[in-house]
Structures are given as structure tokens and as C-alpha cells.
Amino acid sequence: MLMAVDIGNTNITIAIFDEEEIVGHYRLTTKFQRTSDEYGFMILSFLQASNIQIDKIKDIILSSVVPKINYSFVNSLKKYLLKTPIIIGPGIKTGISIKIDDPKTLGADRLVDAAGAFNLYGGPCIVIDFGTATTFDVINEKGEFLGGTTAPGINICNNALSLQAAKLPEVAIEKPPFAIAKNTVDSMQAGIVFGYIGLTDHIIKVIKKEYGQDMKVISTGGLGRLIYNESSYIDVYDPDLTFKGLKYIYDKNIALKNTFN
After folding, report:
1. Which CATH topology does 2-87 take?
2. What is the pTM of this model?
């Protein structure tokens, strides 16, 4: 079995692959103060809940955009699973050629999503990840990462609205029945959800116009399904795209390693 880990700004998500099938899926909040023991106990609890024995985990691949917690988390894997993870970074083959001003600044999550999308759906494509930030990335037919757009995530917009306006509450991010609302909660939900649908569709249109041809649009991320259901331009919603990208990169690097051994 392969453990795939994605450390994001809001959540750490973990998937367990048995061959090509995901047989376990876990999520915990990203907190800087946790020790390696705390992470270790949580991971063991997840595995126990799924009846997965530690010795069944043959390897681990990890992507992170939160360097501050990497040391503790990696140590937890070494201590409790007796495995040193493959970490997305320099020297790892992804199948994607990065064509931006400074390739070192590209987040590991965006690179993994690009690899997963290009491998599964081909190019040219736009990959949208509805995470803490919402990113729109362009991969051409050669597998080249050309660049992208970064927007505040849906939760950031929601939190900013309630924090900056004293009388506005925090609301669940749900589509309200109407755009013209008759109460505060529905009004806020209408602005956030319909506004974000508009943001998403307009950015897709602008990217396609700049690129000069049609492109497949693949989305992922926690709130991606809500926007996908309402968008006129998103072709695919794949909630496991990041994990599939990690699995693809793992397989690619293991194959190369075996070739040269």
C-alpha cells in the first residue's frame, strides 16, 4: 500500500492506495504547534479505524506547502511508520516542465495537480484547485506548466466579510434559493456563492481567450463541487486529483529508479 500525504495551509489530507484504489481517506487540521508524537498518534488512529496494519504501508509520498510543520510530520512518519517519505521537490520527476519566471516558487500542490490532470485528462487544460487560495493553472499539450492565476479562496472571502463588518455573522457556504435575498444569511451566501461562480467562469474565459484555443477544465478541492455544479465552464470535478497526481509521480519515480538499478 502507498500513503499519499498533502499538507495544505488549512488541512492535511491523507489517502491510502491499495494498487490503484483509494481505500482510506483522512483529514486533520494544519496546526504548527503539533509534535511528531501527536501526528504519529493521529495517523495510527486513522489506520486502526480502517483496519490497515502498519506493515502494509510500503511507501509514502508527501507534498507540502507549509514548511514549518514538515520536520515534525516527517519525523512522525519515520518514528511510527518506519518510513522516510518521498517529498515533492528538486530531483523528483513529475512529467511536467515548468515554464514560469522562477520555477522554485511554484507550490508543490500546484505541480502535483498539474501532473495528475495532464496524466489523466491530457492537455491543453486548466486546473483549478479550490483550496485556501483558489488557483487556476494552465498546462499545454506538451505537458508544460505555463503559469496561472491565484485568487482568495471561498472561505477567505467568507471570513473577511464577517470579520470586517461587525453586524455580519459567519455563514455556511451554501447556495441560497435566490440571488435577491430577504435575510442577512441568504444575502451573504448569495454574494459569496454567486459571486464566486462569476469569478471562476470569468477567469476561465479570460484564460481561454489569452491561450487562443479551447481547453479542458478540471477542478478539485474541498468546495470545488459546489462551484462545479453551478459553473458553465468546468468540465470535470475530481476530488482526488491531488492524490492521483501524487500516485502518478510516485509510480514514475519508482519506475525510473528501477530502470537505473
Report:
1. Nucleotidyltransferase; domain 5 (3.30.420)
2. 0.91
Query: Is 162 in a helix, a strand, or coil?
Result: helix
**Residue 156 and residue 189 in contact, taking contact as beta carbons nearer than 8 Å:** no
Q: Cell numbers for 33, please give them.
A: 504547534
| Dihedral sign, Cα of residue 189, residue 110, residue 47, residue 68 | negative
Which of the residues 55, 59, 102, 109 is marked catalytic?
A: 109
Give residue 32's pLDDT. 83
Q: Looking at the chain, which residues constitute the CATH 3.30.420.40 domain(s)?
A: 2-87, 97-246
Residue 59 annotated as catalytic? no
Q: How far apart are CA 190 and CA 179, in angstroms?
A: 5
For the domain 97-246, what is the CATH code? 3.30.420.40
Q: Which residue type sits at 58? A: K
Give the 3-state secondary structure percentages of the chain, helix then strand then coil, rounded to 5: 45, 25, 35
Overall residue count recorded for the chain in this entry: 261
**Mean pLDDT by groups of 10 residues along the chain of 261 residues:** 94 95 93 91 94 94 95 96 93 93 93 97 96 95 96 91 82 91 92 95 96 94 91 96 97 77 50
